[in-house]
Design a protein that fits this description.
Blueprint (H helix, E strand, L loop, with lengths): L1 H23 L171 E2 L2 E2 L12 H11 L3 E2 L11 E3 L1 H36 L12 E3 L3 H30 L1 H4 L1 H17 L1 H15 L8 H7 L17 H25 L7 H29 L8 H4 L2 E3 H7 L1 H15 L16
Antiparallel strand pairs: 1-2, 3-4, 5-6
Helix pairs in contact: 3-10, 4-6, 4-7, 7-9, 9-10, 12-13
Length: 516
């Protein structure tokens, strides 16, 4: 029982003995030790968080006895400054004065007896700069391995060295780069890249670095009316064309102009021929058929004609399908059958261009001498070719209407063939703009030729009696020939008379029976 009461009583007596000492101690900043406490110099870094500050000199510590009084003859300690900051070490009461609260027995490096204390901040010898912020002295570190640098028991390897504190009154150096600017390291200049390799231009690497946005580039090019070029890695540079203004014009021709031109030409010709058949009817010889036949075309001429005609019919139908098939045929037979039909038509269109071209060239060689325009053609035009009124104008082997068909076939068919080969083998001789012009020429001439050949087919079959036999059998009726080609008949009879001739001893002007 006595032991239990002894410990609280001892603690109470110790606390009562320490209260008077605390009451007699001068008031000081808790973070600044009083003079003679062995404070560290002002260049020591502030105390790390959690470090216990050393108590002021003369204060009682529950863990250590009070420090002995100052030695006789020692200089008085410097009082704390009015701003609560100490600028130098205070004079200790004697050499080797123990630091209060030090558990390791380390002593502060204080000057010996008789040493004068340096002037404190705010004194006459060390004035404080006006309007400067308050600076308080750091609290010395205590404990093992702590303290001022160079003091016993200090581990300088683990002690970070703080940068010296620059007085706040010193003006900062001006920024040579301007207010708010930070220095930037200079970038070295890149050497110029070569653009040629010998005499050939050097192809740039395939990259999008430094290129404008595709949408922005397209918008600017569209506003300027220019084409948009890309960058490719294949040898064909024409493939780099992405968008071109001429393509819009070609698309408008393909989707709008060509259907209107083709529709008016083809459908209009059908309408005119039907109207002519209703008004004029089928043209027959005025004196009827005689029953006597004359040779009109030989086997080579007829074979070449039918080769050109058959090729042209397939080419015309497959070409019209490309323009009008999606509107006329597809809704009737369905998309699958229309696709198969269009694929077969495209293949036939490409391959039949060759026999058509050959046939046109042979036709030119065979008939060009008989299709040279002359003054008889003007008489044929003035009389309407015998289609209006009665009678037929005189003509040789081919009249003006047949000459027109010949030159349309030779010239128009030749241009259609050449433009078609440019389309079958693209970019061998033309660029993209040339390809578009080739398509326009090919399509326009084709529909006009189709309209002209419709009139030719009508006259050679339904429109005129006895005309189809010229190409089917190679002969025509004698009366038909005298009405439409009277001069040609006379030429053929003269050739026959020259070959047969009158017998020897016949009177002058005698003729062979049947030669008329």
């Amino acid at each position: 029982m006595i032991r239990r009461l002894a410990l609280p009583a001892a603690l109470a007596l110790g606390l009562a003995a320490g209260l008077p000492a605390l009451a007699q101690a001068p008031a000081a900043d808790p973070a600044v030790p009083a003079a003679g406490s062995g404070a560290a110099p002002s260049n020591v870094a502030p105390e790390a968080p959690g470090t216990v500050a050393a108590p002021a000199s003369g204060a009682a510590s529950p863990d250590a006895p009070a420090a002995p009084s100052a030695a006789p003859g020692a200089a008085p300690a410097a009082p704390a400054t009015g701003d609560g900051a100490a600028t130098g070490p205070a004079a200790a009461s004697g050499a080797g004065t123990a630091v209060p609260g030090a558990s390791d027995g380390a002593t502060a490096n204080a000057p010996g007896p008789g040493a004068a204390a340096p002037p404190t901040a705010g004194s006459a010898d060390h004035p404080v700069a006006p309007n400067s912020p308050e600076r308080q002295a750091p609290v010395p570190e205590v404990g093992a391995g702590r303290g001022a640098p160079g003091s016993p028991g200090t581990n300088n390897a683990q002690q970070p060295q703080a940068a010296p504190i620059v007085p706040s009154g010193t003006p900062a150096a001006p920024n040579p780069y301007g207010p708010g600017q930070t220095p930037v390291a200079p970038q070295p200049e890149r050497p110029p890249q070569p653009t040629t390799l010998g005499n050939q231009p050097l192809r740039q690497p395939f990259t999008d670095r430094g290129q404008a946005d595709a949408a922005e580039q397209e918008l600017r090019a569209a506003l300027r009316g220019d084409r948009i070029q890309g960058r490719i890695s294949i040898p064909d540079g024409k493939a780099a064309s992405l968008v071109q203004p001429e393509g819009r014009d070609w698309r408008y021709f393909r989707n709008v102009i060509l259907p209107w031109v083709g529709g008016v030409a083809v459908v209009g010709m059908f309408a005119l021929l039907a109207l002519f058949l209703l008004v004029r009817g089928r043209i027959r010889p005025e004196h009827g058929m005689s029953g006597r036949k004359m040779g009109r075309f030989n086997a080579i001429e007829r074979a070449n004609h039918w080769m050109v005609a058959a090729s042209f019919v397939v080419l015309a139908l497959s070409g019209l399908n490309l323009t009008f098939g999606g509107w006329v045929i597809r809704p009737v037979i369905g998309p699958e059958a229309f696709t198969a039909l269009s694929e077969a038509g495209k293949t036939a269109h490409n391959f039949l261009g060759l026999p058509f071209t050959v046939g046109v060239l042979v036709m030119f060689v065979l008939w060009v001498r008989d299709n040279i325009p002359n003054k008889l053609d003007w008489d044929w035009i003035k009389k309407g070719g015998g289609f209006i009124g009665r009678g037929h104008p005189a003509a040789k082997r081919f009249n003006f209407g047949q000459k027109m068909v010949f030159w349309i076939t030779v010239l128009g068919g030749g241009l259609v063939a050449v433009s078609g080969y440019f389309l079958i083998f693209p970019f061998y001789a033309l660029d993209i703009q040339g390809q578009q012009w080739a398509y326009i020429a090919h399509a326009t001439l084709s529909v006009l030729m189709i309209a002209a050949m419709l009139a030719h087919i009508y006259i050679g079959s339904v429109g005129m009696e006895g005309a189809v036999e010229a190409m089917s059998q190679g002969v025509v009726d004698y009366n038909w020939a005298r009405e439409h080609h009277s001069l040609w008949v006379e030429e053929e009879l003269a050739k026959a008379h020259a070959v047969v001739g009158p017998p020897p001893g016949a009177p002058p002007g005698a003729r062979i029976a049947g030669a008329d």
